[in-house]
Design a protein that fits this description.
The protein is α/β, with parallel strands linked by helices and 291 residues long. It is 34% helix and 22% strand. The chain is built from nine helices and 14 strands. Helix 5 links the parallel strand 10 and strand 11.
Length: 291
């Protein structure tokens, strides 16, 4: 069983007919992802990219049995789109949109939780199970199927980690880009837990950055659950100045445990194999798996 998405996922695109939705849907379809339709209010009944368009997510669930949604909706309306998907019973919601107001996300986060759906993002590159489904904006050619699970706050470093793993003759089970906003649906710990319970994942790559407690929370959980699988960790932002947001809205050093140095120390104490450069991720994974 793959993590979050696979070849059997019935995926719809919210914001399907917009420029972003169209561009990335085309790429996902070319990859072989099972996109069954899309949602654009007011355009129901039309076809787009040879797929049906619906006025609402509820209609898409009712008519074609959609269970997964990817969201390319402008920031002002994206939280409503997330809640609409959860309300309609979509199980996995992947929000690509960047810049959703924090107040809106606070409401959407609680609503999704109350409905029992899984939200990935927002402001994330999505999820890919190589060879089965690419539900996001990542370059598919970088990913090859294998036994290494990747969880990352950074889109670019997700691709970098995969490229290195593949260059070592290994491959990726699933890669999850969780996003770098202050409020996200799936935390580092949540993603690590999915991989720990996945029979197709033998090793996990965990990529974090300065700011927040996500990596520390995941590290403590990994240790308390008995370090069942080896984890390779990297933290971006070593040289970032304190008090300044770096790239992602959530990447800001607030307390003493928010720094790259502190996070790496906590991870090492919890039995995670920490590398000091992203260039060492692939070789460290290969070294661990060869033992």
């Amino acid at each position: 069983m793959s993590v979050l998405v696979d070849k059997n996922s019935k995926i719809i695109v919210q914001g399907f007919t917009g420029s972003e939705g169209t561009f990335h849907s085309t790429q996902m379809i070319e990859y072989g992802t099972n996109i069954v339709g899309g949602v654009t209010p007011g355009k129901g009944g039309q076809t787009h990219l040879d797929k049906p368009v619906f006025n609402s997510v509820a209609e898409a669930v009712d008519k074609i049995g959609a269970d997964t949604s990817i969201i390319f909706v402008p920031p002002a309306f994206a939280a409503d789109a997330i809640m609409e998907a959860a309300e309609a019973g979509i199980k996995v919601i992947i929000a690509i949109t960047e810049g959703i107001p924090v107040n809106d996300m606070t409401k959407a986060f609680q609503y999704v939780k109350s409905k029992g759906s899984t939200l990935v993002g927002p402001n994330c590159p999505g999820v890919i199970t190589p060879g089965e489904a690419k539900v996001g904006i990542m370059p598919g050619f970088v990913f090859k199927r294998g036994k290494v699970g990747i969880v990352s706050k950074s889109g670019t470093l997700t691709y970098e980690a995969s490229d290195q793993v593949v260059s070592q003759g290994l491959g990726v089970s699933t890669a999850i880009g969780i996003g770098g906003d202050p409020i996200i649906g799936t935390t580092t710990k949540d993603a690590v837990e999915l991989f720990m319970n996945d029979d197709e994942t033998d090793c996990i790559v965990m990529i974090g950055e300065i700011g927040g407690q996500l990596e520390a929370d995941a590290a403590y959980w990994i240790k308390s659950s008995g370090n069942k699988k080896p984890v390779v960790g990297f933290i971006a932002g070593e040289t970032a100045p304190k008090g300044r947001t770096m790239g992602h809205a959530g990447a800001i050093v607030g307390g003493s445990n928010d720094t790259a140095e502190a996070k790496k120390r906590i991870m090492r104490e919890c039995g995670i194999h920490v590398v000091d450069s992203p260039a060492l991720i692939g070789s460290k994974v290969a070294e661990i798996l060869s033992k």
